[in-house]
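Weekly sync, protein design subgroup
Attendees: M.S., D.O., the rotation student, P.L. (late)

Item 1: inverse folding check
M.S. brought a backbone from last month's batch and wanted to see whether the design step gives back something sensible before we order anything. D.O. pointed out we never logged the input encoding, so this time it goes straight into the notes. Structure tokens as presented (256 positions):
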């Protein structure tokens, strides 16, 4: 397991907009993301969590770095969450891996044929995603799961470049939660799509068509309640509800 970033990185990235623009492909972008130190509060928090650890994971080496996206570089479906969990992706280095939210998410993806297995424990567990890439508008675990607006905006270039590189194949975005929805719309509006006015409002099951401005395919945006424990434990979001959203995403994307 990779060590905490403060012990590894000789040249931290403090300007995401400049760095993201240099990425020629998603592999390069993912590597750059993991070197970002643009937000001092988030750097201190993620590394502090990685040093102190949770008792259940005391024997593990935490990732403790910004978390890149996960999934194939020619994905037709993107899943946009919020940010890494302190003892989930901040520990494992892969989005939604190693926490209860990920348990629900990956089971649903497996059930509809978008994942090779129903669970996700670590980077080396063999999990593959099919036609799907998972990402987030904020790449560092934030205190109380609440990034500030400035932190969200500083992180925006990573997501913008990721979607730009996915553009040739991307057809559908499933957004988990209102935070991701609000963070994503400005990214789309500044890229190859025209966000309708008034802007579509978030809601579970909401479907919005975002017209393309570059002559390419339009984008279908699907809203889904976040797979947080608050939603899944209370029944606000159930496995059938989640499967229904991903099945719709498959159909809209033309995935068999």
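Designed sequence read out in the meeting:
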């Amino acid at each position: 397991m990779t060590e905490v970033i403060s012990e590894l990185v000789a040249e931290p990235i403090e300007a995401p907009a400049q760095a993201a623009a240099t990425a020629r492909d998603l592999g390069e972008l993912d590597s750059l993301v993991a070197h970002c130190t643009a937000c001092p509060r988030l750097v201190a928090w993620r590394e502090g969590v990685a040093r102190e650890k949770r008792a259940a994971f005391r024997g593990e080496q935490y990732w403790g770095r910004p978390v890149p996206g996960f999934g194939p570089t020619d994905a037709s479906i993107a899943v946009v969450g919020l940010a890494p969990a302190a003892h989930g992706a901040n520990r494992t280095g892969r989005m939604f891996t190693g926490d209860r939210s990920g348990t629900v998410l990956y089971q649903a993806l497996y059930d509809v044929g978008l994942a090779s297995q129903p669970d996700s424990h670590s980077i080396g567990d063999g999990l593959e995603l099919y036609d799907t890439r998972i990402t987030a508008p904020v790449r560092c675990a934030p205190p109380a799961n609440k990034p500030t607006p400035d932190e969200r905006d500083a992180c925006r270039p990573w997501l913008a470049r990721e979607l730009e590189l996915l553009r040739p194949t991307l057809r559908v975005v499933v957004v988990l939660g209102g935070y991701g929805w609000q963070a994503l719309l400005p990214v789309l509006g500044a890229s190859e799509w025209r966000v309708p006015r008034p802007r579509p409002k978030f809601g579970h099951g909401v479907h919005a068509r975002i017209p393309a401005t570059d002559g390419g395919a339009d984008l279908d945006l699907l809203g889904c309640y976040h797979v947080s424990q608050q939603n899944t434990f209370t029944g606000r979001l159930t496995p059938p509800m989640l499967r229904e959203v991903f099945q719709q995403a498959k159909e809209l994307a033309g995935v068999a």
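Discussion: The CA atoms of residues 62 and 91 lie 4 Å apart. Strands lie at 77-80, 132-135, 172-176, 207-210, 219-224.
Action: P.L. to compare against the previous round before Friday.
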